[in-house]
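Dear colleagues,

As part of the handover before I leave the project, I'm documenting each prediction I ran so the next person doesn't have to rerun anything. This entry is a single chain, and its sequence is reproduced below.
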Amino acid sequence: MGFFDNLKRERGAAVPAAEPVVEETETPEEEAVEESLNIEDVEVVERAPQPRVSGEGFVPTEVKSYSQKKRVNHVVGQTKILAIINQKGGVGKSTTAINLSAALGALNKQVLLVDLDPQGNTTSGLGIEKSQIDNCIYDVLLNDTPLTDVIIPDVYEGLDLVPATINLAGAEVELVSEMARENRLKDALGSLRGRYDYILIDCPPSLGLLTVNALVAADKLFIPIQCEFYALEGVTKLLDSMKRVKTRLNPTLDIFGVLLTMYDGRTTLSRQVASEVRSYFGKIAFTTTIPRTVKLSEAPSYGQPIIEYDPAGKGSQAYLDLAKEVIRRG
């Protein structure tokens, strides 16, 4: 009996027959397991792109004002706001936020990425030096700063960023006493509808007021699930929270898609988790899976999305395939 089968029984839903786990034939490439002292790792390091450095060290992405944004070269369609969310940390939210946004931009879409996580991993992962940021999403939520005063344009082709700094850590407490506290992000993003094809929100790994703001602002949810058992447990609480927000604050909220991340087809556990997720969510689950690769882990330290850091790699191709799938869903 699978994890989601128990959840279905609790909700009174029919439990479909479990899909057989198909043993995959391993290719020679898949059989090569990366070891810390393996000589192939030396070759990988030699082929790796060089970070942006000068004589003074790492060169961060230029922080420009919104007035310096490049002209959009296509007609922007109806804006879709997606909250990338999972209450469990380490499932690939920020990695997906960065690389899906960059892939959509590479496919000629205009994307705004909102970093709503106080850790600011999405901001630093795009090469932004936080000490150069005057205002961040905290100022939008608490000080009524216009969003256009915070946006850093063109951090990658077709991609603008609303950064986060450590200031955001205090927002959970400070929002408690604010009027219309759940609608702060929704009100700020409303003025940007029609300027972007997609607005993606990288949510914190919790179900506090920041996440509630994202749930209220979003049209739909984008849920990354790591291919490990513990990642499944957080999904049930997330679905319950979504139901409460949908009932009281955002009647149109629904799930846009479920993405399997850190997938390793060589392990039985990854295949079993993938089978259970697809059985439970059906067509909501994306066909594309994100593989577990060293390059995806390395790219943020270079301040680059994977399609720039390792354009010919498996991770890059996976996120481009995912972006195409997102576009096909509308």
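The longest strand covers residues 254-263. Residues 13-48 have pLDDT under 50 and may be disordered.

All the best with the project,
I.
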